[in-house]
Structure formats: C-alpha cells, structure tokens
C-alpha cells in the first residue's frame, strides 16, 4: 500500500516523531511505501509530494518542526481543491490512503474529505490539547514545559521590581496550557477561556499578593475574556478557516490592572515560542506510538478514524467524534487551582 502523510496547521514539537513512527512501522510490518505531502493540504491539492523511506526519517524523533512543512491551506478552496480533484490526484499517483496529522481545522477538513470517499486516518496534533476523543495530544507537554520555564523566569524580574507580570500563553478556546504551566510555576492567578472573570476579582487576587509583599505573576490564555466581554480579544484578522487569530489580551489587562491597583504591570506573550524547539521525551514517545497505530488503522481500512490516547492505551475514534466538541478544562480542575490564587 502507498500512503501519503501530511502535517497541516500550526507546527508543534513531535510532528517528525509521528512521521518516523509511521514510516518505520509501515516499512517493517506491512512493506508499505510512503510519500510526504509538502506544506499540508497545499501539497495535496497541488500534487506536491516527496518519497519517504526509512533512511529519510532516521533520527527524526528528537527534531522539532516538520520536515514536510505545514500551512493552513483549506483543501476545499482553489482551482485544484475539492474532493473530486484530490481523488483524481491520488489515483494518478497510485496513493491509496492519507494520514493527516493536525488539529481541529485539519481534522475537520479530513472528516469532510473522508465523507466524500477519500481514505483518510487522522492523528491529533495540538499544543492546546483541545481535541475531544483523546486524553492528550502530542506537543502539549512540550508547550507546558516552555510556558512553565517562562513563568519561572519572569518571576525573578517581577520580584526584583515589585511588578505584576502577565504571561500570555496559547489556548484559543481551552485553558490547558495556562492551567498546567500556571500550577507548575505557582502563578498567583490563572485566567482561562472556560472561566470568564471580572476585573474586580483579578485585582483582588493581585492586591492580595502585593499585600503579602510578593510580586503578582498571572498565567493568561490567549482566549481568556473578562466576564463583561462578548467574545475573545482579536485584532489580527481571520485564518484560512475563517477563525479569528487571537492574541493580545494580556496587553489589554496589564495597563488596566496598573490603573486600578497602582502596581506597575507588564505583559509577556510567548506566542510561537511554545511551538518551537525539540519535543519533550513524553511527546516523542506519544507521537511515535500515534504514528505507528495510524499505519495499523490504514492497513485495517479504518477510514474516517483518528488514533487517540485513552489512559495509557492508543485507541481509534471517529474523526467526527474528535472534532464534534472541545476538550475543555472541567470546573473541578479549575477549582483545584483556584484554591491557590492570590
């Protein structure tokens, strides 16, 4: 069987480990051959791909980024887009199936193409950890480690100047990165999308820290909104899937905190730092396992499914289930952390 692999959407640590796991398992267990589509769905609609063999993936598990490149191309747009054109391209090149590695946008497109009869298996990739159907996705652990180190580092400068510093991390609709990194680094408050909060409450936490002689440090998800805001803060336009590009909420909060409390305040947005660098050991192992099981799903003809982590086991769920809702932070998890605020 000839299998095409793509990495689409935002890059994250562990993508190369998935590719390596898939190619090595396919080569050794099934004598499969592989091609890699360049730059995600863009390579699919343009028929732009390269051969992948076991020598091409040697040593990849520790390498960050993706050797195939990525993009936020919508496969249903453009003159070569759409299921009929994609089917024709796959048939002309003898490609029997596609392993799509991506997050919400990528897998939503994969589900629609699968519904049109294209043989696709999905692999969950999102540092936000927001995909339903899997307990964790690779990239999340590495992002949390990076965010935790950043909060640790700003704490020393906050204490030196007695400033309040807000560290903005990624998290479009869910607050897992902020929750885990905030708890790990001992942030004095954690602001996440699932828990809109009033300015009065934020200032109460900040002042409580100041009154104890400490410098307040807050972890903030990019998708956080105040209780009086109708939607998330966005001033960067829309992406290829017509979703608002978020970011900048910490810049809105910091000057208002300073104005209300008199505490000099600053904001730091980590942005793409959370996506870069080498994956953690946990993410290398998880990504490798997901790649290997994705090939098993292809060989079994389990089209329209996604490999997922449940507990410590790799299972298969439908892509529809994975994209049908968000893996939100439960109230009880936030309440655990909130005991430590202020």
Describe the 3D structure.
The chain has helices spanning about 15-30, 40-45, 85-90, 105-115, 140-160, 175-185, 200-210, 250-260, 280-300, 320-325, 330-340, and strands spanning about 1-5, 35, 50, 95-100, 120-125, 165-170, 190, 215-220, 265-270, 305-310, 315-320. By secondary structure, it is an alpha/beta fold. It has two domains: about 1-140 and about 280-325, Rossmann fold, CATH 3.40.50; about 140-275, Phosphofructokinase domain (Rossmann fold), CATH 3.40.50. Helix 1 (about 15-30) links the parallel strand 1 and strand 2 (about 35). Helix 1 crosses helix 9 (about 280-300) and helix 5 packs across helix 6. It is elongated. The mean pLDDT is about 95.
């Amino acid at each position: 069987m000839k299998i095409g692999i793509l990495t689409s959407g935002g890059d994250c640590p562990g993508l190369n480990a998935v590719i390596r796991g898939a190619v090595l398992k396919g080569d050794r267990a099934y004598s499969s051959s592989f091609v890699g589509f360049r730059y995600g769905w863009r390579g699919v609609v343009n028929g732009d791909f390269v051969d992948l063999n076991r020598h091409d993936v040697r040593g990849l598990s520790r390498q960050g980024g993706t050797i195939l490149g990525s993009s936020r191309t919508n496969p249903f747009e453009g003159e070569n887009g759409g299921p009929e054109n994609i089917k024709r391209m796959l048939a002309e090149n003898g490609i029997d199936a596609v392993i799509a590695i991506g997050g919400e946008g990528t897998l939503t497109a994969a589900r629609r193409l699968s519904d049109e009869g294209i043989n696709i298996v999905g692999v969950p990739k999102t540092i936000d950890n927001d995909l339903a159907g899997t307990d964790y996705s690779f990239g999340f652990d590495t992002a949390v480690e990076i965010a935790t180190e950043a909060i640790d580092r700003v704490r020393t400068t906050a204490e030196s100047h007695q400033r309040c510093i807000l560290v903005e991390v990624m998290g479009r609709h869910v607050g897992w990165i902020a929750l885990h990194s905030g708890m790990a680094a001992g942030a004095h408050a954690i602001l996440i999308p699932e828990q809109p909060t009033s300015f009065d409450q934020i200032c109460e936490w900040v002042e409580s820290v100041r009154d104890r002689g400490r410098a307040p440090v807050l972890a903030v998800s990019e998708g956080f909104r105040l209780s009086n805001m109708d939607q998330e803060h966005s001033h960067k336009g829309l992406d290829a899937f017509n979703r608002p590009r978020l970011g900048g909420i910490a810049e809105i909060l910091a000057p208002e905190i300073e104005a209300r409390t008199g505490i000099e305040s600053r904001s730091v947005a980590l942005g793409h730092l959370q996506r870069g660098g080498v994956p953690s050991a946990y993410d290398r192992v998880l990504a490798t396992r997901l790649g290997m099981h994705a090939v098993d799903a292809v060989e079994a003809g389990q089209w329209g499914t996604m490999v997922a982590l449940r507990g410590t086991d790799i299972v298969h769920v439908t892509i529809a289930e994975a994209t049908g809702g968000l893996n939100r932070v439960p109230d009880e998890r936030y309440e655990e952390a909130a005991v430590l605020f202020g």
